[in-house]
Amino acid sequence: MAILVYAESHEGQYKKAAFEAISYAKSIAELSGDSVTAVAINATDSSDSLYRYGASKVLKISSEALKSFSPSAYAKAISELKEGDTIVLPATADASSFAPILALKTGFSLVTNLTAAPSSASPFTAERKSFSGKGIETIQVTEGGKVLTVLQNAFGTKENPVSGTEETANVSVSDSDLKEKITKTEPVSTGAVDLKDAEIVVSGGRGMKGPENWGMIEELANLLGAATACSKPVADMGWRPHSEHVGQTGKAISPKLYIAVGISGAIQHLAGVNSSKTIVVINSDAEAPFFKSADYGIVGDAFEVLPKLNEEVKKFKGA
Amino acid sequence: MKILVCISSVPDTTAKINFTADGKSLDKNGVQFVINPHDEYCLTRAVQLQETQGATVTVITVGDASVEPVIRKALAIGANDAIRVNAASGDGFFVATQIAKAAKDGAYDIILAGRESIDFNGAEVPGFIAGMLDYPFINGCINLKVEGNSVEAIRESDSGKQTITANFPVVIGGENGLVEDSELKIPNMRGIMSARTKPLNVVEPEQTVSKLNVVGYQKPAERGSVKMIDKDNVAELVRLLHEEAKVI
């Protein structure tokens, strides 16, 4: 049987989260002996990248109606494919929205925000995020089919090249399935790195003293190819948009490297970032609680340390 | 306009999380419970719509009698009445089944629920409700306006913001941004007094069959001790990130 994976794309290009979902599906397939089939909606990207992570078949849906995101319409399209009894989705904003509806349409159980490869394929047993990163839940699907979502930047990508084939899939979705109507789309600034997908995140807190000082944060982010983020007070004061707020009530992220500048490290902030692989804290207050949860720390004024760090990173990148 | 706000009782955001000795559940000892923050943004927006556009606001929660202080707080914040589905909370499908039934029976126009709870991080309930009732669904909502029998919402997606319209009845998954933190309501004495006499209807749950089994919980591995670097030796940080942590 095949494990079906939703290969999410943005403006036709596959997202890193799609490769992560395929890599995850492949980790199940290795235990169960199944193959991996990816489904793409309105993607124009080459399927080669999907084969590279282990998808041996790619089902391509092209649909005018699905150019506009609607949770029920996306769930309907994927449920019509009737491929196997395991569907893997990335835990992106869009896929997380339609995952429950897809579970209802297929009659499968739903398990969200998986963080690690399953320890068993039958019964499916794996770890997922809980208590905003303060806990790990091990969950089992005792019988029947399952819809799974995979937390971004948690399991990661794993190349597993196979030779694959592409097929066109037809679904019966039409405009009448769109219960919601998108009237305006406002993209985040072009060139900015998607925060949940980012390998490196540079984040600023109240210690940055004002929005006019963000140039230094952005410079470091540019040098490292990183996304920028901020603490909750910074978003609440309007220094930075809410979309950059990481923490318990903002976005939860797990990059390889998280650099926090002028953030004291309240427990609510840690809940959003504590699954980062490596944490660097730069703070003028040696007593800032964040140092206890960091891998590397520098006690120093952001306005003194950041320009030096930017210079050193420039040297390193130039080397 | 009838609004149903789904609230979940969760450990306070500052709570230290521990699990029981058998690893099967949260150790509730010394843990304060609060309205799930994403739900509180939804409740606040609903109460604003009550004040400005004459909506009636019902809160609903699935839980045993121990969650009543959280329901009373929601009533003190301004909800008109409350429903408690009398069951130890189950999985997302179970919770959504209860709420979907109440939403349909009560003919609510807008069902507002936090995008996810900060305890189980399922992010399942709003989508399940929408799917069960076949209602439009706007998730990750950071702005909500009501005009006549429709809503205009702004949704935050991974790639930006979308302005979306949908007709009643509609399910909204709300989050931080739906109202500003400064707009959150702290109940005053009058609110607290009136909350005591507002209707709280206790109903018995519908049964569902779950094929999920929670094997157990554990705490994430502790991070090793922090390595401090002198502020005058920033080059050392770059070296460590490259050679030791191997992240740049």
Summarize the model shown:
Chain A is of the alpha/beta class. Chain A has helices spanning 16-32, 48-52, 71-79, 93-106, 215-224, 232-236, 267-273, 302-318, and strands at 2-6, 9-10, 13-14, 35-41, 57-61, 86-90, 109-114, 120-121, 124-130, 135-141, 146-150, 165-168, 181-187, 200-204, 227-230, 257-261, 278-283, 296-299. Chain A has 2 domains: 2-177, 3-Layer(aba) Sandwich (Rossmann fold), CATH 3.40.50.620; 200-318, Rossmann fold.
Task: Describe what this molecule looks like in 3D.
The complex is a heterodimer of chains A (319) and B (248). Chain A is α/β, with parallel strands linked by helices and 319 residues long. Chain A has 2 domains: 2-177, HUPs (Rossmann fold, 3-Layer(aba) Sandwich); 200-318, Rossmann fold, CATH 3.40.50. Helices cover 26% and strands 28% of the residues of chain A. Chain A is built from 8 helices and 18 strands. In chain A, the strands form 4 sheets. Chain A has a 7-stranded parallel β-sheet with strand order 7-11-6-1-4-5-12, sandwiched between helices. In chain A, strands 15-14-16-17-18 form a 5-stranded parallel β-sheet. In chain A, helix 5 (215-224) packs parallel to helix 8. Chain B is of the alpha/beta class. Chain B has helices at 37-53, 68-77, 92-105, 125-133, 189-195, 234-243; strands at residues 2-6, 9-11, 33-35, 56-62, 81-85, 110-114, 137-147, 150-157, 160-167, 170-174, 200-203, 212-218, 227-228. In chain B, the strands form 2 sheets. In chain B, strands 9-8-7-10-6-1-4-5-11 form a 9-stranded mixed β-sheet, with helices on both faces. A two-stranded antiparallel ribbon of chain B has the order 2-3. In chain B, helix 2 (68-77) packs across helix 5 (189-195) and helix 3 crosses helix 4. At the A-B interface, helix 3, helix 4, strand 7, strand 9 and strand 10 of A face helix 3, helix 4, strand 7, strand 8 and strand 9 of B. Strand 10 of chain A pairs antiparallel with strand 12 (212-218) of chain B, so a sheet runs across the interface.
